[in-house]
Structure formats: C-alpha cells, structure tokens
Amino acid sequence: xxxxxxxxxxxxxxxxxxxxxxxxxxxxxxxxxxxxxxxxxxxxxxxxxxxxxxxxxxxxxxxxxxxxxxxxxxxxxxxxxxxxxxxxxxxxxxxxxxxxxxxxxxxxxxxxxxxxxxxxxxxxxxxxxxxxxxxxxxxxxxxxxxxxxxxxxxxxxxxxxxxxxxxxxxxxxxxxxxxxxxxxxxxxxxxxxxxxxxxxxxxxxxxxxxxxxxxxxxxxxxxxxxxxxxxxxxxxxxxxxxxxxxxxxxxxxxxxxxxxxxxxxxxxxxxxxxxxxxxxxxxxxxxxxxxxxxxxxxxxxxxxxxxxxxxxxxxxxxxxxxxxxxxxxxxxxxxxxxxxxxx
Length: 343
Hints:
- The protein is of the alpha+beta class.
- The protein has a single domain, classed as Creatine Amidinohydrolase (Alpha-Beta Complex).
- Helices cover 24% and strands 22% of the residues.
- The longest helix has 22 residues.
- The two termini are 32 Å apart.
C-alpha cells in the first residue's frame, strides 16, 4: 500500500516504523511521512523527545498492552449507494498529485459530505464507554452512513475491512474495529470518512473512556489545541509550512512528540496533494482559496517509533506510549479557513 511520502531529507533522514508481514505504512485517510522523529536537526528538540520518552515509559506502567480481538466480516452496502472508484478492488490508489480546488457548486457538495461525517463522528463518540467493543462502534457508524445514502470511505480502501478506524491507546492510527471491549481509562481515536454524492468528508477525534488520568487528559487537550492552531495558520497566500510551525511551537511547550503521519488534500479524491506536515518542514507552495485538505496532528507521550501489525494497518508505538489525534477537513478562504467538519 503505497501512500508513503518521501519527506525533506535535511530534516527526516530515516523511517521511524518497523513493518511486519505484509505491513504497509499508510493511512486510508493519512499518508505517512518517513522520518526519525527525534532527529529534527535541533538540539532542543532532541532534548524534548527524550523528555517525552520518559513521560511515555512512566505512563505505560500498569497498563496492559493493546491486544487484537476478532475481526467480524465486512458489512454490506446497499446497491443503490454511490461507490468510490476503488470499491471492489484491494488496490491502494496513489496519492493524486493534483490539488483539489472547488467552485461554488462543489463547495456545496463538500459541505454536505463533511457535515455528515461530523454528525456520524459525534454519534460514534456517544458510544465510547467501558465494555463497548470497537466492532459495535463500527456497526453503528456503518448503519448511520448508509442510512444517509452515503458510503463509508475506509471500507475496501486498499483492502481495509471496516467502515471506520478505531485507534485505542498506543495505536497511532489505522486501528481495525474488533471484539476488544473498551476499558475504563482508555482513550480512543475514531476516524470517520464518508463518501456522499462523489465527495469525501474526513474527520476524527480522540475520546476519553470512563475515568482517565490527568496526564492523559492533558495529552488529548493539547492535541486538539495543536489541530486548531494549525487551522488558524490557514489563509489564501500563506505558505503550507506555516501549519507545521504553529503546531510544533505549541507541542514544544509540553514535551510531546509529533507522530510522522500527515494530512492531505481531500474532495472528489480521497487522498491528494497538498501534503500537510504537522512538524517544521520545507513543503513548497502556498494555500489558495478554494482548496480543501485535512489537518490532523497525532501526538505521542513517548517515542514516535512504531510498528505495524501483520494486518497491514494497525500502527502502534514500539514503546507502548499513548497517542491522541484530532482531524478536520478545512476549506481555504481569502480571510482564513472554514472548518467543514465542525459539528
């Protein structure tokens, strides 16, 4: 699955992820940047990474590692529902090099798709409670999407077997819903993308399950703040690298690490340029009014070195440190950015 994006060599010299079996590091809603997160070319950022790894190792004590459960069969989609081009094949599409621009008519369609994605995510969040399985969340999300006449974008994308991603605790992203029940103190990122009338709407949020400790609450809070700070940088004519700069400046205050997954253009195509880095970067180009893309930083309490399970999707931190992520689809405007997936 080739949504692996080559990063700027001066900053990111090597990959942080280990692959097992047929593992392919990607995101059906994220391309992943290969980099070694603590080698940022700056002494202070190296020190911050070391602090973060200490925080992560302390947090892991007393929490059981994430174990995979049983994955139920793929859910059906009614024949009358419009399907994305990749449906019916396990082939993973390449990231489209075009940057998706919208006129008045297509913006209406984007708003509709994103509004539905936001409502589905909000509903999924109400299900986050101890003893609820991620498979139950997937079933509820699937049903709500098809009831609205839309298609769950993850389903069948590069062979992904479910309609939503549910990433628990040390799972950075791409978690496959299964029979594992949520436990008191867990955190879970639910990533919803829907395909409605030929347009994708993409959003995610990390939820607290039951009683969660204060350090974990802070991780989740800061991750949301980072997403919003990245969005605040968006405006017609502004450099794309301003997004990563805003996020990195905020992260550095807390000693967390920024995981090496990136945002992407979204619209009629699931994944396209521009590539949205959440770290300091050299990404060329400037934002243009009418563009849509995602901003979706993932922060870790410890190291961002990860491995992918042999399901080819589930990316977890090697040191077991917790991760949180938030994501919105945004539309660049002359005066700033409109959050299309705001509910």
